[in-house]
Amino acid sequence: MTPTTDSLLRNLLRIPEAEEFLAWPGDFEPSRSGHGEWIHLPCGNPLQPIAGDGGGGTYYQVGAGPGANRPVLYASSESEGGLIAESLTEALELLIGLPYWQDCLPGRGFPLAELEAEYRSTFPDLDVRRARVARLLGVSRPSAEVLVARLHASVARSVPDYVPRTAQGCSYVPLG
Q1: CB 95 within 8 A of CB 74
Q2: What angle do CA 54, 58, 64 make, to 5 degrees?
Q3: What region does 51 belong to: left with phi over 0, alpha with psi -120 to 50, or beta?
Q4: pLDDT single digits (tens) 15-36
Q5: Would you tell me which of 20, 44, 106, 148 could form a disulfide with 176, CB atoms 3.0–4.6 Å apart?
Q6: 132 contacts: CB under 8 Å, gap ≥ 6
């Protein structure tokens, strides 16, 4: 049976360790799913807010229906947005494996090894926590290189249909 968005998020909220890890360092909090302004997509697909981050950004699933196999879009509070994953499961894998995913966007130029070293200095048990949270949520642990490649592919697919627009029709800046 294919998981639903609600079942994955409910499962996440029932597992304090997973919820805490995704909140920090992942900066993904289902309790913060309200965005500061109404947005829509040029393609007309509906957006379902699923989580927010500490900076006022919002994660959405694109499309209608309960299935978790819908793309995930991120819209920042600075009017930058686009796809980050092809499903909620892939988004969770991204957040677990690359909590610094925004620094891995095309054009940002941050070396993966330096980002990882910075997080490891703050979270010495990062690998143990990643493995445990992935297991608790039932998601895979792709390599950082695979996660970056998926992120870049999703971001590249964003233009033009999956770059949010405001109620006034102003386009967000594509991610990266």
Answers
A1: no
A2: 155
A3: beta
A4: 999 999 999 999 999 988 776 7
A5: 106
A6: 17
